[in-house]
Amino acid sequence: MSSTGRNPNQRQTDPSLGPPSRPKTRWWRQAKFWQFFWQAIVVLFVVAALSYLGYNLDHNLKRLGIRLGFKFLESQAGFSIGETPIAYQPSDRYAMAMFVGFLNSLRVIVSGIAIATLVGFVAGVARLSNNWLLRQLAKVYVETLRNMPLLLQLLFWYFVFTSLTKSDQVVSFGLIQFSKGGINLLGLPLSPEFSALLTGLTLYTGTFIAEIVRGGIQSVPKGQWEAARSLGLLPGQTLRFIILPQALRSMIPSLANQYLNLAKNSSLAIAVGYPDLYAVSSTTFNQTGRAVEVMILISLTYLSLSLLIAWVLNQFNRRVQLVER
Description:
By secondary structure, the chain is mainly alpha-helical.
């Protein structure tokens, strides 16, 4: 019994008194305060580091008599570009030249993603085939190409395509024709540089997509195969209507990473002489000396492309994922 004449245990048993009050925690002992504190410290450190780097860059450029700016894009480029999907003349501006390079990069990235996906799906399914020869061929393709440097593969394919097109004679393999002027695929002319870059990128990326497809298919429970077989579905029908739609849900995040890698690896086009964005930009900053501005433009362009690819794949991923209640 307390001095007030009330039993301390009465508060716990008497609902009219309400729940017992808890002692207030000091603000410096709260977890939210320290979370905010350390995040603020990191932000201040990043801002200070960027400010320091920016000050040094501006100081060194002023010492060299150079001022940051993008007015050079309005000057005459004065150099030609080997492949131009749109009309371009050396008398055009640097901005136009870099836009042509961007379109060339976009051409490789879009066609590369489509072909690499097809190659990867075929190879991934072949890795699980009951046919021993087909399974071993797919294994050799995956294990060989994915363990070789991409740059080496691009140079190899460039040598192959340029060697096939040195003579004036037209060499035909069905719907593909090789000549001195390049490659003709189903009536679509392709330069040796573009063909080498596209072949190297698609075959290299296709090996990783094949492993993603194989893992995705194996993640589907075996009961799904048995249920489809009990319904009388053929193996091809089972794979198309039952297995792949389920496996696709686990494959999309990994596929997005490979598409991003292909987009970034397309900048190796300069090694085979294909005039993509990076190659044209390299010529631009060699002529103008605007290395900082050109690198900023290249970085923003590739960053925008990567974010666009990731956004499209994320939207598709949300549509195919199961909604849990």
